[in-house]
Write a structure and sequence with these properties.
Strand content: under 5%
Number of strands: 0
Shape: flat
Radius of gyration: 17 Å
Mean pLDDT: 88
């Protein structure tokens, strides 16, 4: 249990450090890896398969994140060129 707490604290501290070192738009897409790992752990550890609503929600979240990331890249490119 102590190891779990330690890794949780370490993970949060590293995310804080990452957000301090780079723009949030560059780091946020890596947070979506949590969705993938949640599905994998659910399948492997508990034998759970996500239902259609869960998969639909994941697709909506990831699509919105990709859109925001793409839009931020376009704005940054326009600022660099203009």
């Amino acid at each position: 249990m102590a190891a779990l707490i330690g890794f949780g604290i370490l993970g949060h501290l590293l995310m804080i450090r990452a957000f301090a070192a780079a723009p949030a738009g560059d780091i946020a897409p890596y947070g979506y890896a949590g969705l993938l790992f949640a599905v994998i752990f659910g399948l492997v550890l508990f034998g759970e398969t996500p239902d259609g609503f869960t998969l639909l929600g994941a697709v909506v979240i990831v699509t919105a994140g990709i859109y925001v990331w793409y839009r931020e890249r376009l704005i940054q490119a326009q600022d660099d060129n203009g």
